[in-house]
Amino acid sequence: MLILGIESSCDETAAAVVEDGRRLLSSAVASQIPQHRLYGGVVPEIASRLHVENTVPVLEQALQSAGVSLGDIDAVAVTAWPGLIGALLVGVNFAKGLCLSTGLPLVPVHHLRGHVAALYITHPELRPPFVALVASGGHSHFLLVEDYTRFRVLGRAVDDAAGEAFDKVARVLGLGYPGGPEISKLAEQGDPSRYRLPDPHAGGEYDVSFSGLKTAVINIVHTAEMKGEPLDRASLAAAFQQRAVEMLAARLAEAAGERGLPAALCGGVAANSALRQRAEELCRGAGAPLFWPELSLCGDNAAMIASAGYFEFLGGSRADLSLNALATREI
Predict the structure, then answer these.
(1) 21: alpha, beta or left? (left if phi > 0; alpha if psi -120 to 50)
(2) What are the structural domains of the chain?
(3) Residues 192-249 pLDDT 10s
């Protein structure tokens, strides 16, 4: 079964064709990072306008790369929630128009479920149940993946998401957008032990809080500026990254180890090499094999939406032309 996926939840316009949820035939992504880098973050209005410009070209590229036509497609999967509402509406309305004109079934997909499904493309042998950490610019969720379409939230970020915290810390350190890769690069030159940062605790067993950690970094920077003292930006970046990574990796290993299940990293923050290394160490100690998608599938892409759409389609999920995008929705 061939599923065409469409993704436009934030600042990537993407289309992809996936066969049977696990075999990637094509993936086309038009990134908006150069445009948003000018402003230090995503500008929703600009994102929406660029999605309008890029959706048809990425669709054509995905079909051409896969060597198929719309007549070969069995269903269209689209990110319907959560995300930037204007950006989502572009993809949802385009998908509805495509299905109206072709008669193809329309399958709405939750963005976080898409990130989990990226694992099935890289690791065709992976089957639920397992514990997954979905860490991105807008979300940090610890999920018990009970089945392909059944998820239970074990914990989450109660304030800033991990990727959001990386972006904000990068901004105060004078680094570019997106912040994650910039902090990771700078941290390689630093000594994480030079600065002591807090280990924030949230209410739930697997909940995390990044707001206090982010504020501690900002206070160190501002104090150094006010006193005219030198600031070791590399070591501060290293200290922040080490603390953030430990918070995420420790909870993932604990959640998976206690249940005797495999563990998985997914989402844009899963591309962080320090997180992958530390999670692998802790999960090995907990007796939990660890999986993560290939780097090209960590960030937002339509291949993961097509994969998730396949399993949602098998589960009976369909939408009609009344489908509407939602900025927030529980998984």
Answers:
(1) left
(2) 2-117+297-314 (3.30.420.40), 129-295 (3.30.420.40)
(3) 999 999 988 777 889 999 999 999 999 999 999 999 999 999 999 999 999 999 999 9
